[in-house]
Design goal:
20% strand, oxidoreductase, alpha/beta, 382 residues, binds nicotinamide-adenine-dinucleotide, Dehydrogenase, NAD(P)-bd_dom_sf, six-stranded parallel beta sheet, 13 helices
Length: 382
């Protein structure tokens, strides 16, 4: 998607406001404050005292705080917003920012469901502002090296991720119906799309809760996705599996025509393929600092970044397809999930111009993969 560029440089760093002062908001606060590419202008949270405490804890007692992120951005001259609120607030906060002329870098997931995420993709089209989702694993240099190895394996048969940990979070995760699928698996699903450069076609999932689980919902899930091109992606995970924990990134195996690549999630990946030697280089950045660097560079150059909302939504569609299959017990088609989410987005949309943009899409899949947008290029506000 074409979007408005925002020039910045060493002498003129991008002025950024953060919204959301919870656990992850504090991590972003430290990252933005440390980056030579950005100047932090303020932090907003519905709980303004929490925002104040977060700023104080970061050694920034004079940092402006507020409850309304757009108002704070205006008061402090911010040029962009980082949205680190809870998933339910992603849609209203990001929509308000885009319509106020602010590009947004948002924490995953894009929104609380695919329908709301489609609305955000349409809002980005209408406003011509960049909305990039920070899916932090995308910026892991080891994953990038694994991706380069995968490109040397010829056709790919199966990709698998094992994720087995024993986590006692307390709070909302222990009350969710599908905590592993909804709160965690999106990282792996997004990484699988990134590794393969392929999109999901179907999902079959069995999710369940072992008898010793301390979660109310299903802490275990096994999902098989068919990706376009025929590769199968298998995700096998648990959040209540005592002993021998895998990495937070999961343990990966990619089986291809010419060999196998594997990654334990914490160390350099290993390539076992005839005639292939040498370790690929990978990008020079990682984690949320990497996402911030990529966001600033995209605003300078106008090059769509990895994680641009249209490109990101399919990872959320994988989560919803897996949950739907877990509930129905059947194989689910991702296009059915997208079609229903598109219809829901049209029903729920309150902004006429966003509804018009959604109505102009031939299908959600076409819009997300660029087909509709290339047909209607030039219809954005800017
Ligand atoms: N990339 C990762 O590895 C990673 C890790 C943890 C969390 N996250 C994501 O980061 C986001 C935040 O997670 P968290 O753990 O910090 O949550 P949290 O609940 O600790 O903090 C969220 C904050 O948002 C504030 N908020 C909610 N609605 C708001 C609104 N409309 N305006 C202003 N503030 C509002 C809340 O008051 C709260 O302080 C979530 O989307 C989560 O999925 C990502």
């Amino acid at each position: 998607m074409r979007f408005r560029t925002v020039p910045s440089g060493a002498a003129d760093p991008l002025r950024v406001v953060i919204v959301g002062a919870g656990g992850m908001g504090r991590a972003w606060l430290a990252t933005v404050a440390d980056s030579p590419d950005t100047t932090l202008t303020g932090i907003a949270d519905l709980d303004v005292a929490l925002a104040r405490r977060a700023a104080d804890a970061a050694g920034l007692p004079d940092l402006p705080v507020g409850t309304d992120a757009v108002a704070l951005a205006r008061q402090t001259g911010a040029q962009a917003m980082i949205n680190v609120t809870v998933p339910e607030a992603h849609h209203p906060v990001t929509t308000a920012a885009l319509f106020a002329g602010l590009p947004v870098l948002g924490e995953k997931p894009a929104a609380e469901n695919v329908s709301r995420a489609l609305s955000l993709a349409a809002a980005a089209e209408v406003t011509g502002e960049l909305f990039m989702v920070s899916q932090s694993r995308r910026w892991n240099p080891q994953l990038a090296r694994l991706r380069e190895m995968v490109a040397r394996l010829g056709r790919i048969g199966t990709v698998s991720t094992s994720f087995f940990r024993s986590e006692r979070f307390g709070g909302f995760r222990e009350r969710m119906a599908y905590p592993l699928l909804v709160d965690m698996a999106i990282h792996a699903f997004d990484s699988a799309r990134f590794l393969l450069g392929a999109e999901p076609v179907t999902a079959y999932c069995q999710s369940y809760n072992p008898p010793w689980s301390w979660y109310a919902g299903d802490a275990n899930a096994t999902v098989v996705f068919e990706m376009d091109g025929g590769t199968r992606y298998v995700y096998d995970g648990s959040w209540c599996s005592p002993g021998a924990p895998t990495s937070w990134n999961g343990a990966w195996r990619v089986s291809g025509e010419m060999g196998t690549a594997s990654w334990d999630g914490d160390h350099d990946p290993i390539l076992d393929a005839e005639g292939q030697t040498g370790q690929p280089t990978g990008p020079p950045y990682s984690g949320i600092a990497g996402a911030l660097q990529v966001f600033v560079r995209a605003l300078r150059t106008g090059e769509p970044p990895s994680g641009e909302v249209h490109e990101n939504v399919m990872s959320l569609a994988m989560v919803e397809s897996a949950v739907r299959s877990a509930a129905s017990g059947r194989l689910e088609r991702v296009d059915d999930v997208l079609r229903q989410a598109h219809a829901q987005a049209l029903r729920d949309e309150t902004r006429a111009e966003v509804r018009d943009a959604l109505a102009g899409w031939s299908s959600a899949r076409d819009a997300l993969t660029g087909v509709s947008r290339s047909r209607s290029a030039g219809t954005g506000r800017r």
